Amino acid sequence: MTNSIDLPPDHCNTTNPITYQVLSGLMIGEFVFGLPLNLSVLYIFLFRFKFWRTNSVFLFNIVVADFLLMVCLPAKAYNYQHGVRRSENKGLCATMLFMLFLNRGASIAFLTTLSIDRYFNVVHLGKRNCVKFLRKSPLISLLIWFFLLPLTVPTMVTTFECCNSLGRANETLFHNITDTFREVVFFTQIVIPFVILVYCTVRIVDRLRKKTVGEKTKLRRAVFLVTSVMVVFSVCFLPCAIARAVLLAVRMLEIQDAEVMVVQVYDGLMVLSYIDCLLDPLLYCFCCTGFRDAYLEAFCPAALLKSMPNFDSRTTNTHTGHTVNVPLEQK
Question: Nearest Cα to 94, choosing from 12, 187, 160, 180?
């Protein structure tokens, strides 16, 4: 392993070639498995499920965010294979950072919005609220994408990508302010949604305990959804946020020997965070059985027939507009 004193000032070269070759291979694996999965999900939402008719606008935006994030992985893997943590082309580097953090932020935002929607449907069922209206229109989705743009711009600098933020030599007041702002944006996009998810999960679980037996099936599905989203957060996003906090502390304390190792851990956990593009499609099935049935009908019809032994082939699917095999007993 290269000693930290040999690192360039911007810390953008990899310190352990073997580690970054492994991380590159992991990203290639995520891309190979994730691209066809996300393409198939995108196909179902556009042509078989018709999300605009089924109040699934939030789910569709998660699909778009995951797909755009997935197509960035080959370039990131290429950089790691060549011993650099970001592209040496400044324009390409800024574009990659913009795409990675915009779509990662969008995935987090829409997963959180989906959980909030379930919270209102369960905890405040029967009450008039704006969430029921907004989930039927693209307005809130457009607003989320719009507000994410200015939050993504601060990350489009090489100092952020190379973890060369705070604690730099000869740092000016301007550097301190801009670096602090970038870090606040990074942590806010993870910590605040996680707090919201915990609150929604606790309230929905509490509601489940108070409901009668006849109403518990729908509530259990809602609990399963918000719990699954929280698990995705806990596996994909929280670890990299914790690692970055440790990295910033190490940098400010000028513990150079530890910094080399912590940087590698942070990069590894960032690569792990991209696996949410593989986990999110599972959430689509948990959220909407209509999507699950449309997906099985398109790609695994035998599995659909096995799970639905009682079906009527003359029934028309109201979600897709196509005639499909659906159970005689409605869910």
Answer: 160
Q: Which pLDDT belongs to residue 127?
A: 61
pLDDT digits (tens, 9 = 90+) for 115-137: 888 888 777 776 655 556 556 66
Question: Where in the chain are the domains?
Answer: 4-299
Of 72, 88, 78, nearest in space to 12 by CA: 88
Q: How far is CA 283 from CA 62, 225, 249, 287, 327, in A?
A: 10, 7, 35, 6, 22
Residue 297 corresponds to which amino acid?
E
CA distance 64 to 42: 8
Q: What is the pLDDT of residues 278-317, one digit of tens each?
A: 888 888 776 777 888 888 888 877 655 565 555 444 444 4
CA 30 to chain centre: 14
The amino acid occupying position 316 is T
Token representation of residue 265: 């851990």
pLDDT at 58 (0 to 100): 82
CA distances from 329 to 222, 265, 287, 315 (A): 22, 51, 20, 12
Q: Which CATH topology does 4-299 take? A: Rhopdopsin 7-helix transmembrane proteins (1.20.1070)
In this prediction the pTM is 0.80
